[in-house]
Amino acid sequence: MTIKDHLKSLLPKSLSAETIALRDEGNRLRDEGKFADAAECYERYLDAKPNDFSIWVQRGNCLKDSGALGAANAAYDEASKLNPNDADLNLQLGHLMKLQGKRNPALSYYKRSLELNPNLSSARHELRSLGVKLKETASPLQAPALQRKSANV
Fold first, then answer.
1. Alpha-carbon gap, residue 53 to 55, rounded angstroms
2. Of 82, 94, 127, 128, whose CB neighbour count within 10 A is largest?
3. pTM for the structure as a whole
């Protein structure tokens, strides 16, 4: 069995080859910078697989990048219904709010993103770019317990 056949066997049986092709075509178009076309493919894919969180986010990203901000918001809302506690989704919502000139909601989403994933440097960068002073997290090597251990050596 080839790797491709093995991967296909792992896909849910309810996805037709046509549905998978729509998702793949959306990915290809997205990678080529054809965001509106990618969003259309993703929309058709989501008609068949409406619980695919990551594709809702990708659709929102493509719509945002193509300037369809209202439609991007609707796609992100659908993603949020599936997984509201995803750091990347909150980051993308922050970007959308920032593009719309909605500073306070953008700040809230960026902060939430950083709460969900403290290592998300892009959220930290966005907050700094909006003038938010962040408390730096200490390196694990600077933790008080480790400092005491090294002093006793």
1. 6
2. 94
3. 0.77
Nearest to 90 by CA among 71, 68, 69, 107: 107
- Identity of the residue numbered 104: N
Contact, 62 vs 39, CB < 8 A? yes
Contact 126, 97 (CB under 8 A): no
* Alpha-carbon span 6 to 87, nearest angstrom: 31
Write out pLDDT tens, residues 117-146.
999 999 999 999 998 888 765 455 544 444
Query: For 91-100, which contacts have Cβ atoms below 8 Å and span 24 or more sequence positions?
Result: 91/120, 91/122, 91/123, 91/126, 92/57, 92/60, 92/61, 92/64, 94/123, 94/126, 95/64, 95/126, 96/60, 96/64, 96/69, 96/72, 98/126, 98/130, 99/64, 99/69, 100/69
CA distance 27 to 22: 9
Per-residue pLDDT tens digits for 18-63: 999 999 999 999 999 999 999 999 999 999 999 999 999 999 999 9
